[in-house]
Design a protein that fits this description.
- The complex is a heterotrimer of chains A (487), B (95) and C (488).
- Chain A has 487 residues and is α+β, with helices and mostly antiparallel strands.
- Chain A contains 17 helices and 16 strands.
- In chain A, helix 6 (299-308) runs antiparallel to helix 7 and helix 10 packs across helix 12 (405-414).
- In chain B, 32% of the residues lie in helices and 9% in strands.
- Chain B has helices spanning 5-14, 24-38, 73-77; strands at 62-63, 83-84, 87-91.
- A two-stranded antiparallel sheet of chain B has the order 2-3.
- The mean pLDDT of chain B is 95.
- Classes of the chains: A alpha+beta (487), B alpha+beta (95), C alpha/beta (488).
- The interface between B and C is large, with 53 and 75 residues.
Amino acid sequence: MKWEVVIGLEIHAQLATKSKIFSGSSTAYGAEANTQANAVDLGLPGVLPVFNEEALRMAVKFGLAIDAEIGLKSVFDRKNYFYPDSPKGYQTTQLHHPIVGMGHIDIELEDGSSKRINVTRAHLEEDAGKSVHEGFHGMSGIDLNRAGTPLIEIVSEPEMRTAKEAAAYFRKMHSIVTYLGICDGDLSQGSMRCDCNVSLRPKGQEAFGTRTEIKNVNSFRNVERAIDAEIERQMDILEDGGKIVQETRLYDADKNETRAMRSKEVANDYRYFPCPDLLPVIIDDHYVEAVRATLPELPDAKRARFVHTHSLSPVDAAILAANRELAHYFETAAQIANDYKLAANWVQGDVSATLNRLEISISELAVSAEQLGRILQLIKDNTLNNGGAKEVFNALVEGKGDGSAESVDKLVDSLGLKQVSDSGAIEAIVAEVLAANPKLVEGYLATPEDKRAKAIGPFIGLVRKAAKGVNPQVVMDVLQKKLNELG
Amino acid sequence: MALDQQQVRDIADLSRLQIDEAQIAEYQKNLSNILDLVDQLSAVDTSAVEPMAHPLDAVQRLRADIVTEENHRDHFQQIAPQTENGYYLVPRVVE
Amino acid sequence: MHNKTIADISRDLAAGEYSSVEITEHLLTRIKQTDHHYNSFITVSEEQALAQAKAADARRAAGDADAWTGVPMAHKDIFCTNGVLTTCGSKMLSNFVAPYNATIVENFNNAGAVSLGKLNMDEFAMGSSNESSFYGAVKNPWDTDRVPGGSSGGSAAAVAAQLVPGATASDTGGSIRQPAAFCGLTGLKPTYGRVSRWGMIAYASSLDQAGSITRTAEDSAMMLNVMAGFDAKDSTCMERDVPDYTATLNDSIEGLTIGLPKEYFRSDLSADMQQQVRNAISEYEKMGARVKEISLPNTHLAIPAYYIIAPAECSANLSRMDGVRFGYRCENPQDINDLYKRSRGEGFGIEVKRRIMVGAYALSAGFYDAYYKKAQQVRRLIKNDFVNAFKEVDIIMGPTTPTPAFKRGEKTADPVDMYLEDIFTIALNLAGLPGMSISCGQVNNLPVGLQLIGNYFDEGRLLNAAHQFQQHTDWHLKTPDLKNLTGI
């Protein structure tokens, strides 16, 4: 039988607020256990929540970025379940009145086409704490530092049909939330986690098959691999005439397989109801418009502008626009040099290669965008040749600069990379070289006319050896002129 | 509305309450009486009435995004049943 | 000394009649010698009280005293008190030394009041008789075979037994007004949102409100002056100015329009009770008030709506009592669910478990619309009854309870019998309105309460009306015969 895969994603993104969604505790990552959990986060008796205005603003920003309806009235509900990392015995979330309603994003497919994926909703909620199972002689340790960190849960329509599409959707959401500055996007710290709902149905059938949910997948690559593994598992069962059990599963990246979660065996009845400790959150159009005014240019718009205004290829534009910091770096350098194509070549060439080699992000690169811009300026006005530019760049990578554009000029001087284009100066050098190498000159003159272009090579090498940073084109012109005069 | 004994056990389980088997019948009777009492509401026509979650039609106040809390872990953990190295300890939970 | 009101003590301390340490020591001794008859205190915080009293006397000596400096009082054990056991009447919190103060506790501390300790209550404020406390039943000083009312029974009994001149209390369905009525006292439940709920252990968050039990309306005004006000830590606490509630006590009530809901004077209310309440209304007419019959047609729905909403909210509010971070934990839990189920099963009493289970059931899949949503809709109908009534009248009056204090054990067989006790008080909590109970007569030598219901944030008018009644009558001065019980 031919099967069609149906995938929907629920992405949890931690909002980059300083304090928690309902308390004044810090949200900073990596603190010692329970040192950032106050009475509210611990769910002590008698404590009460007060909503963080920045979490609201960030959620609205997200809604506007995906062209969604904004909930002018949103309501917090309690989702009841017992688990040690959920200190109150319920999670405060939004069920019936989420802050963000139906919206959509476009993902780019491998064939270069794009596909629209609708977003059902995105709601505000609080993160849970963490359980640690090692080092407590058979018990579990509970750390509630993360409890109460604001999250938006972004729920897609089940409109993805391949694991690749799902990964592209996750990447795009990552790109959007980091562009907006509402999430640091650090997958390794759990700042974004993805639950994947996967089901199969016979091709042509409208009704959905039974789905499973793979919980907490935390990398782009694993989203693709986990879904593919789950598709394979489900297909095997269905092909054998079996039935899929609706359940929650975990992805084991080492074994590249999914397995059912034991702790969620009992079907839960979450008994949602409006949280009586929090009042309805009411915002108006004025508020929404004020937030809209703070929206940065988003990846799609930036990509389009790179193509249409700056004549980059769609592929280059997509790569450069996908990451906010990289895009910013690129554009800063391009604007200084007044040459987007040259900057694009450099950012995708030497810059990317360096990032990969050192396994660092663009923000950690020792070469600032201003410095790269200055290097590109110097290439364009023929002060640097390509080799010299690379040498300066590499010197900067090694830390031989102070971040300023001026330090580029200093390096060019100290390394003696300044390209000599003055033909008078070059004529003098050429004259010296020819005078010092009479045998070579003889040999050249003995060479037939049609083979002389090749025979000029050794002279160029000698000239460049005698004087670094000479403009190769000028050297060639002068050499030809001088040699022809001799011959 | 009368509950049967299995429903009583299920609700107790959902609420994580250990109930002695010997007391189930009493719970069954009392809970059923309470549900009979509240079932009076079903006769009321509320089709045009907006549910009211809060007595005052007030809206949520917002808090500035400022870290106001310091670490009081030792103070809070003095009252905890079992802790180690700053963690709260529970019987091992497995995922 | 012990039969004095808060206002008396405040004046005496100012006049140097005695010191804060002296009256504090006197009351502490009296509690030690007589409270075993009433069981009104769970914790007596002698050391802290004496330290506060000394500090208050020092403050007075430095010329820095105001109305509350050095005045003794006590807190219902539902309010968190930093460093002091806070049990909420439950085994679950029998080891819970609160790590912070409730806002109103903080307010009284800042005002210079002296807290003598923590008062008994129905477990987690669930009850109308104070028989559900883990610390044992509280006895009514008017007749120790009878209940003091609940859930603030300890607050009422302690004031009636003259162990403290006033106490904080809380009211979710009548838990201040009914004990005040049963013990011949003045109880005030303010408007929802008038007083911060921070640090008051939640039973039903949208219904709970802190208030006071005192002997007089004047004392009640003094208590509210300290308690009321905005608190940034409570999202449901309203940002409104707090007037000086003592300033309007003596205003004339000439022309005040009193609404008498016909539903509150039903045929099954005993003739004796009716008579006491009607006599009180006549007093008001003598003072120049006008009386108007009104209707609150949805009164009969208040108890059913309440017994969905309150259990639903409590089922979630009490989930945090799980034996993980504080409170009671069972012995040798086998796994996490065993820890939850036995800690909660052993830590909670039967009435608390019943309400948690009713709430869980009402919220469970498939029942939400029929129960919870329906109750929220009926809640609006009940509120609308009051909104309409207050278009015609300034204040609403009626009985606080259907009967005077009943005997212990009389209503424990079927919880529904107990629930029906709150028929006149519960609607106010659903609507969020302020209410008072003042003593207005006796039936069989037991006090009868008159309930006064005000419009939103109209506590000033309620206190004014209550105070004027107490200026013209002496029911509030009647005290139980404590001689045969007390040592001093």
